[in-house]
Amino acid sequence: MRTTGVPTLSTIPGLDSAPTTHRTLLAWVHEVADLTAPQRVVWCDGSDDEWRRLTTDLVNVGTLVRLRQQPNSFAAASDPSDVARVEDCTYLCSKDEPDAGPTNNWMDPVDMKIIMTELYRGSMRGRTMYVVPFCMGPLTAAHPKLGVEITDSAYVAVSMRLMTRMGAMALEKFGDDAEFVKALHSVGAPLKPGQADVPWPCSDVKYISHFPEERAIWSYGSGYGGNSLLGKKSYSLRIGSVVARDEGWLAEHMLILKLTSPAGAVHYAAAAFPSACGKTNLAMLQPTLPGWKAETLGDDIAWLRFGPDGRLYAVNPEFGFFGVAPGTGYRTNPVAMRMIEQGNAIFTNVAVTDTGDVWWEGLTEQAPQHLTDWQGRDWHPDFAEPAAHPSSRFCTPIQQCPTLAPEWDDPAGVPISAILFGGRRATTMPLVVESRDWQHGVFLGATLSSETTGATDGEVGVVRRDPMAMRLFIGYHVGDYFAHWLALGAGADPAKLPRIFGVNWFRRGADGRFLWPGFRDNSRVLAWITGRIDGTADAVDTPLGAVPAAGDLDLTGLDADPGDVAEALAVHPGEWPAELDLIRDWFTTIGDKLPRELHDEFDALVRRLG
Ligand code: GDP
Ligand code: PGA
Ligand code: MN
Ligand code: MN
């Protein structure tokens, strides 16, 4: 980066009050300040005082509305053009194009840096530049995974405090020379002298760029969580998956759940579902099956490493939840409700009630008679559009989760005995299927598909392949990623590997209704899964794998039509020729790098289906 603009670095207040002697960090902060020309620099310490100051500022500028019904909680409404992760503007800038593979937009890193350096030049004028040190995963890890986000958004700074181990506690781990990921973010809306700010500054031009070889992230133009809270998708998955490949572990889009059976047997499961397909709900499951207990470790991201005993251990790198609001209510997810009601939450793009509380579709059966909708409009129940954006979010600290497992912060992680891959499919995929072995399980993950949701921009409801629910997050070639999964399995003791299952809570009847009640009743599926691991549950062998007969699931007290349950479990070979064509197309898209083993699995599936 070259320096041209004023003010020069020596005149920017706050720049030299750095609470660190880390040389690379200091040099980088100076370089960015020099390029982006902020009015002042603030080093975030993550204190309560700082939170109060920033949230008060955000209320004053109109970004946040203070809620009257919940302590220390706020609602934010984004610009209507900045409501989701922007897939088309997200880039993987590996040095060589083939390394990005067919699932990433690619641009040469040098070209991208030329474009973005010009965008960043002066982009923080009139704004405060926040320096946010953070750590992904436990601070007590042998090698804590550190990062620093530089941002000109106070909303990002306060959200980072909820989502990561942030501020002084992270900076302590930096010393003078610890490695860290550089994450640069600007909303791309500089202010001229005297120009009034808007509640949600952002830019029409957006780039969310990743430089995997450098382990760096440059984000510009969007304030929306998935594009701007760079510890989450950008660090923990896109950069994380590259580090994981190089170091022999896995960075995955998975929740982590602890299950205790009535007999006291403990199993840990990890589950990968695409965004808005049920991770947060499953992570906070309250089983309907008597005597079962479920506890939460993570709801979105898991880092999986083999332990000294040869088992696969999972750590949640995050420190908070960024959950889909619509559909969350006492009936579906009472745990999330109890977590939210403790306060200390930031909501984005939900509706606000006349008494200063939040509301979204599914929170209560009856909508209030009047709301201010997510776009600030007067809303009544007969209004044509939903009051909350379909991907509106709650953001809360993990420690408020009433079902948090005591071992959630253990740097060793928890040993995983089951991995679940699931998506939203109205047809073809049964409620649950057990893979035959690790390789077949990797095939299930590699061919995972789902109807698209509102969590990213683009059309909703279109079936597409979402391998391991990582389509948008794999930081290298998807074929190499599958090979990495296969190699990790091949190098492990098969008896110690997690068993892999496919699930689908979203199969529909001819009239469009869900065939399976889902939510808390998914505990019945989890009970069957642990039964398979322990050798106590029966199944029917189908071309797709082992599927329970209705009688193999514990359906005691289930409020569902037995015909629907049977249909949710059914494998219809007649539905499969079309599906096989889609898988064939997907494999063709991947090309030469698709591992031989997955071709073999495909051929075997075709044979079994007849
Ligand atoms: P995440 O984005 O993967 O964490 O998904 P969430 O758990 O936030 O759920 C996304 C949406 O799917 C919400 O509207 C939920 O109400 C809905 N959902 C979650 N689990 C189920 C389920 O088991 N059945 C049905 N029908 N919907 C579900
Ligand atoms: P989720 O996470 O929708 O998978 O919960 C946030 C995101 O993917 O943007
Ligand atoms: Mn996610
Ligand atoms: Mn979620």
From TrEMBL:
Residues 28-245 form the Phosphoenolpyruvate carboxykinase GTP-utilising N-terminal domain. InterPro entries: PEP_carboxykin_GTP_CS (IPR018091), PEP_carboxykinase_C (IPR013035), PEP_carboxykinase_GTP (IPR008209), PEP_carboxykinase_GTP_C (IPR035077), PEP_carboxykinase_GTP_N (IPR035078), PEP_carboxykinase_N (IPR008210). One of its GO terms (cellular component) is cytosol. Its cofactor is Mn(2+). It is found in: Cytoplasm. Pathway: Carbohydrate biosynthesis; gluconeogenesis. Its EC number is 4.1.1.32. It comes from the Bacteria. GTP binds at A276, C277, G278, K279, T280, N281, R393, R424, F519, R520, D521, N522. Mn(2+) binds at K233, H253, D300. Residues 249-607 form the Phosphoenolpyruvate carboxykinase C-terminal P-loop domain. Substrate binds at R85, Y224, G225, G226, S275. The active site is at C277. One of its GO terms (biological process) is response to lipid. Keywords: Cytoplasm, Decarboxylase, Gluconeogenesis, GTP-binding, Lyase, Manganese, Metal-binding, Nucleotide-binding. Monomer. NCBIfam families: PRK04210.1. Belongs to the phosphoenolpyruvate carboxykinase [GTP] family. Catalyzes the conversion of oxaloacetate (OAA) to phosphoenolpyruvate (PEP), the rate-limiting step in the metabolic pathway that produces glucose from lactate and other precursors derived from the citric acid cycle. PANTHER family: PHOSPHOENOLPYRUVATE CARBOXYKINASE, PHOSPHOENOLPYRUVATE CARBOXYKINASE [GTP]-RELATED. This is Phosphoenolpyruvate carboxykinase [GTP]. It comes from Amycolatopsis mongoliensis.
